[in-house]
Model the fold of this input.
Amino acid sequence: PTTGGTPRPPRHKHRKTGGRRNIHQKKRKFEMGRPAALCKMGSKRVRPVRCRGGNMKYRALRIDAGNFAWGSENCAKKVRILDVVYNATSNELVRTKTLTKNSIVQIDAQPYKQWYLKKYGVDLGKKGK
Done:
């Protein structure tokens, strides 16, 4: 079985009976894993990584903006990321402002407010009549 696209060969494991496995082949390049990027907040820093077949992945090491959608209004904008508010994995990722998939982040609302004003003529965030 594979885990999240990363094959984990069972060569280093014991058999079901408890015996050792005979290793009959070397480690393969396609079985390689890489260290986590642990993307932080800051000015954009992206590194290319060569993958199988000569394809490239782009590893973000620092990011200051992202593409966020306002689902109910069917509106997506590229906006600044202000802060990491919550991460279910660990509070350390919140403290160090590490951006991962599943991070809850605070973003700049200004582009959405401008879009809403242009579409509906209503200025969001204003109190009163």
In short: The longest strand covers residues 75-86. The two ends are 61 Å apart (CA to CA). The CA atoms of residues 122 and 128 lie 12 Å apart. The mean pLDDT is 91.
